[in-house]
Amino acid sequence: MQDKILPSINDPRQLEKLYRENKSAFKQAFTALYPKHKGQPLADFWNERLHYDTEDINWGNTKEILAVVSLSILAGLIAKIPAILSIWESYFYPRNIGFILFPILAGYFAWKNKLHSNKIIFIILAMLIGVVYINLLPNEPSDTLSLACIHILLYLWAILGFAYVGDHRNIGTKRIDFLKYNGDLIVMTSMILLAGGLMSAVTVGLFSILGFNIEKFYGEYIAIIGLAASPVLATYLSQKNPSLVGKISPVIAKIFSPLVLVMLIIYLVAMLFSKKDPYNDREFLIIFNVLLIGVMAIIFFSVVENNKLSKSQIWILLLLSIVTIIVNSIALSAILFRIWEFGLTPNRGAVLGSNLLILINLLLVTVRIFKTLSNPSDTSRMGKTIATYLPVYFIWAILVTFLFPLIFDFK
């Protein structure tokens, strides 16, 4: 994009055309070029335009607000299906919790991006296949059922990503934006839930003073509907007001990256003196893998949330990636050891495949981070490396969700 902007730096019509083709890529490229052209009237104008932050929250128009309210109510109704249809909660929620959220958000982005009818049909069919399949699985407790319930969330998340990317020409850039959206969604939803939790506590407390015990009613209806609706509201607010949380997520990533690096090194050293190890302790291996996924997420969000990283930040990410690869290798060797000793099970097969995919992804990202050290101003390729790999996780989710129960005879 810089190569296209540079010859047009004094051509307002061409700059506007490039901006409308790809707004996020244009902003990133222009921001990198601006210091060399600071003082030029057109360059200064575009810098102000791209980095102008309004103090007022954009609530959108009436049509958009009604759409969000309708989607929020629909999410709440889906969450209350067990009560409405007298279905066991222990049966419904493990299988269908993802269908409370992801179809609603996918519908929002399909509407927002004005997707073609064939893509909308694909999204609907993919969702229907998922919901019908997961609810037709035998109700007897099994490892393959648990794995399917977990991995169908990744399957639905990938479909949401498809709706988010829409008809955008630059798929790689849009996938990076999708990862940024996930970071913003977590931050915004957390703030909404915190505020909602405080309001709920005050409301229940005030009514209890008057002698009305509304705790059960509030928890079964208001709280559940609020939980289901909060990601919808968070999505709407973050999309209408990118600057609202756009500055928070990079700060969080910047703060936690060095802290996690130090914690991880201390943890590995402490493990050497501990009586527990992932080779002989199944619970320890599970916690080890959860730690791995969490650290990997911090690395990825640190990369995609920052358009420009300092050399010290890149070094921290490189060291964090290397240490995470060590953690992944330990976990992988522990899984292979347990398979060798006790045989292959659905859980061990799923964890083995997941760790292999994560290891490959980490290696690719680490190589890209290392190459970025020679050119710290160009961090976009790190994000593209992550974005290019995303479909691999989608394929893996399909395999575990739909094929593992058949491969392992629903055990």
TrEMBL record:
Tagged with keyword Acetylation: no
Membrane-spanning segments: 65-85, 91-111, 120-138, 144-165, 185-209, 221-239, 251-273, 285-304, 316-340, 352-370, 390-408
Signal peptide: none
Entry keyword set: Membrane, Transmembrane, Transmembrane helix
UniProt protein name: Membrane protein
